[in-house]
Amino acid sequence: MSVSWHLACIDCATTYGGDTLRVRCDCGGVLDVVHAPVSVAGGQLRELFDGRLASKAPIDRSGVWRFRELVLPVAQAHIVTKPEGNTNLYDAPSVAAWVGVGALRLKHEGENPSGSFKDRGMTAGVTMARLHGMRVVACASTGNTSASMAAYAAQASMGAVVFIPDGKIAFGKLSQALAYGAKTIQIRGDFDAAMRLVEEVCDAEGIYLVNSINPFRVEGQKAIGLELMQDLDWNVPDWIVLPGGNLGNSAALWKGLSEAHAAGLIDRVPRIAVVQAAGANPLVRAWTTGAPLEPVAAETLATAIRIGNPVSWKKSLRGVVASGGVVTDVTDQEIVDAKAIVDRAGIAAEPASCATVAGLKKLVSAGVIAPDATVCGVLTGHVLKDPGTVVDYHRGELPGILSTYANPPVVCDADLPSVLAALRG
Question: What's this model's pTM, rounded to 2 decimal places?
């Protein structure tokens, strides 16, 4: 096949043809997709992308493939789309007041077809699997990746194999992988053990790996930033804040926006803040010490970011540094309290998403982000991804957690006086 890109190792700079079927360099480093320069001027690109908003074609209605010139220019016949993207950007005045900024907008990636931002990358990953004629795809997952991969593989009539950590995945996510027909293997170990094994299995069995180590996953996830800029009429905010787990999303955000800037689509690149859970914060430690990332034994109730050895850490750190951004972490208590605030605003998201808001509050309090800065936050998953944590928080049943903003159900007898007393109480 003929393609307009090539692959380059971010460690040793070795390059490979864009049609090469690999996800790592021979040196073990991760790969970038390097595109040929876009021939269309920035103003024309804006007109092209904006014009597609009125189209009824599936690839134009996709919030990924609408930007295909900057994401992945492939033939339409290969594209596997649901379509994804087109998520809402919410004004959140009550959340803004709680974190201490004048205004805040939240891009809710939980509104994607499978309920998380992973669909943005998975449409590109599974499209590449189809382009290469692969019949089976695989991933390791804390939940959202497996749900997304299973959905897209089913649509493409491909087999799907999921490796998940035993007992450490929210049922709302596990149920999706099972429902879409993926062969699901629970490893007696954590996510990092599952990630190590899935790479070995894919190499041994000729299966296409679609974790975020796959460079084409990152290309799809770039569209979060591109669509956000389109939502803002191409006006760039001062900061974008998002959670950090395996760190492909933050890596993609910077890559997409820096490429958009180079193409003249936007006039600058915003600063990026990555927020990790305090119990799963290897990037924070690397950022603080200036040393290479050291894996940690991850533990947090925010299951989507419970990752101790993120494969995309170098790409993520590259983007944070280049954008003049920052890395921070927040406790589980801060995450669930922020979640309660986001939920009460009528927006609602899974716990890992709300690390965004908790981290923003911390950064504003520390004077890193000014109260008058223009800020957009990314919420990565739907509130129903982890309903058990929601209910346990409001019932006051999360171990070690104070239910600061609890809204518990009220139990009463089945008669009118009791119901009225409960209602009025």
Answer: 0.94
